[in-house]
Amino acid sequence: MLIAVYKTAKKAGMYLYVAKKDDFSAVPEALMAQFGKPQLVMMLPVQKREALAGVDKARLIEAMNEQGFYLQMPPKEDNLLEKHRESLGLDSKPSQA
């Protein structure tokens, strides 16, 4: 299975996987509107890869077979203030008085 992978300029780390290059017919219009103009990153031979960065290969294949596309969201960012408070031995979130 050869999949086309696209990125968006709107959000770093967000990728759209589709079954055929430049064929977004399976992707809902609302999603395409939010995604913006897709920029081709690569053509990915999924079956030849043992692992994919940031993507569960089984979930990707399942979504491609069922929906015709897969949307990879960026990883959740760490809250640096909470981490700093924890390093000081404080509660991660200040109490509300």
TrEMBL record:
Pfam families found in the cross-reference section: YcgL
Alphabetized InterPro entries for the sequence: YcgL-like_sf (IPR038068), YcgL_dom (IPR027354)
Domain of life: Bacteria
Domain YcgL: 1-85
Stated name of the protein: YcgL domain-containing protein SAMN05216361_2213
Source organism: Marisediminitalea aggregata
